[in-house]
Amino acid sequence: MYLNGQRQFRWDTKKRIEKLQYVVKSYEEGFLPKENISVGKYKTMPDNPSLRDLSFANRVDSHIKATRKAAERLLEQLQNRKVELFDSHMELEKWAENENKVVSQFIEEVSELKFKVTMIGDDVANTAKQLNKRHSSADLSNFESKRK
After folding, report:
1. What is the pLDDT of residues 73-105, one digit of tens each?
2. Residue 94, in any domain of the structure
3. Is residue 64 within a helix (H) or strand (E), and if so which, with residue range?
4. What is the pTM of this model?
5. Closest CA to 145 of 48, 55, 29, 22
6. Number of domains, the chain
């Protein structure tokens, strides 16, 4: 029973990490997954910014924040899993050596992905903040209603 749960945990975690890797790779290549919006364009302030730029920068920013939260949740779950592998004296259970190595590897991978997302997200958030200062929220709401 434990082995089935262990396999399922590893499989689910591997799939979640692969999904994060795909999204982060898309960011690094300069695009939001499944959308035609340039992430690279909003890492710095665009020339002659428009309301369209503000709208897109906000969408990119919210997408990246959601990805960062997903990475944080996964990291927290992995850290909790790692704690479960130790006994009350904080010594690794004998049966948990291999599992500890796997969980540690997962933690390392997710931490690296979270760092990459944070670096990209900080640049985009800064640009979105600057664009929000240039345009009023009423202008953006009006633009969004026309766009839809």
Report:
1. 999 999 999 998 888 888 888 888 889 999 999
2. yes
3. helix 51-84
4. 0.83
5. 55
6. 1
